[in-house]
Amino acid sequence: MAKGKDMLATIGPWAYIIGLLIAVLAGVFAPGNTTAIWGLMALGLLVGLANVTEKEVMLFLVASLAFLLSASSLGSVFSVLPTVADLEMGKWVAGIMSYLVAFTAPAAAIVALKALYEISKSA
Asked: Considering the entire predicted model, what is its pTM?
């Protein structure tokens, strides 16, 4: 049976892939669904705990920050796009972006807290 770290190393990548799929599907088919948001936040916490190694912390935090800023902005831009041929693609993209933010923010928060703990521990 896998030990704790081995189990997290196995679960982490799958949590990331599942989170991305849920964000895209929920953005298209269930915009504003609070259950999907809570599930994505839980998966984000799992990703933050399991996927990011010590060497990846800085890159992950910078990439997360850039993504969170751009996704929030893009979601706002796409939400005001007119519908084309009865497809509400602007709303879909805005929904997907908001779900991706709900997924990424907890992961970034966990990694940031782990980094702060490591910094304070060594000081």
From this structure: 0.83
